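Can't paste images in this forum, so I'm doing it all in text. The chain is below; anyone willing to post the predicted structure tokens underneath?
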Amino acid sequence: MKVIGLMSGTSGDGIDAALVEIRGQGPSLRVRMLSHVTVPYPRSLSRRLLAVASSGTVAEVCHLNVVVGELFARAALRVMQQSRISPQAVKLIGSHGQTVHHLPNVRVEPGVGRIRSTLQIGEPAVIAERTGVATVANFRTRDLAVGGEGAPLAPYAHYVLFRHPQRARLIVNLGGIANVTYLPARPSLRTVRAFDTGPANMVLDALVRHYSRGRELMDRGGRRAARGTADVRLLAKLTAHPFFRRRPPKSTGREEFGEAFVLRVLAEARRRGLRPEHVLATCSRLTAWSVADATRWIRSQVGEVVVGGGGALNRTLMRDLREEFAPTPVYTLEDLGWYSKSLEAVAFAILAYETWHGRCANVPAVTGAKAAVILGVLAPGRHRHPKTPSAGARR
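Text version of the structure:
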């Protein structure tokens, strides 16, 4: 089955679309990459998405839900065009959407009880209509409904793609938020562990936008941070954030490390008279430290660290990670034959494939869910009448 995965991370900079071919079932899936494209958001839209995540109106969220759906559909069509494959040859699309809010910590609602919530926009009905391809979306909410954090969900794909019979691996994804998946040697889904560790590109990108007055969107290659030195006192203040003391399972997002966090970083940097390159170097080291600190309990068992996500292209961040994990070797996904920017899109193609076949693909040991469940909701393709997976199935 040819499947497209669509992903936009918490950095809100654009859409990754991956076209893959998938065979088999369950953990024995075989996945082959066919094509990948990255479609940047227009700068004005990126700014609106970041703003709506913290202070958007209902009308703006409603409007952007369809705008993002249209852009996700275009990204799917573009990866088909690049591969010279018609929409009729693609069976399924898995769309993560664009997260605008994620509240995995329990809140008690009077008369209802304990509530966890999340919201991803990018209307799947629009994607299905524009492409003609059945589209699975809203993956996180089903895991939340059974008491999970709704994140991270990519560990199922990490288990399928990267488990090793002899070596324990730590898979690190450096997106807007950094997360890790620990795969012991010869793992089962019950022995996989994964969780968010803290901010990654989200904070670095926000700092670059501030210091460049919007002219630059990221520290490409980590060149700015490479000219600076991490400030020990600022780093000590940042590492005191309460998220770093929470035990897994845990997940986070812009609610904890978004605009308010960046403003605190900038205010402290001004008090200390720090130049921009030193602030960027400090926040790069914060990401590397948070990944290493959160995994100290398994460090002695890890044979190698494999890094993906956009942050894998940041040479300063990779240098910091290698220093934190030394002497354990640190590789990138390219060393394993994959493209760092594409992995999360591939993950949601895999999750959609499992949903289509009525199989559970959350990992309760990772998210804290009470049960394994079929993820997502299905928007049928324009010209197809898919067989609906059996409701309520469990592994």
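The mean pLDDT is 94. The chain is about 40% helix and 25% strand.
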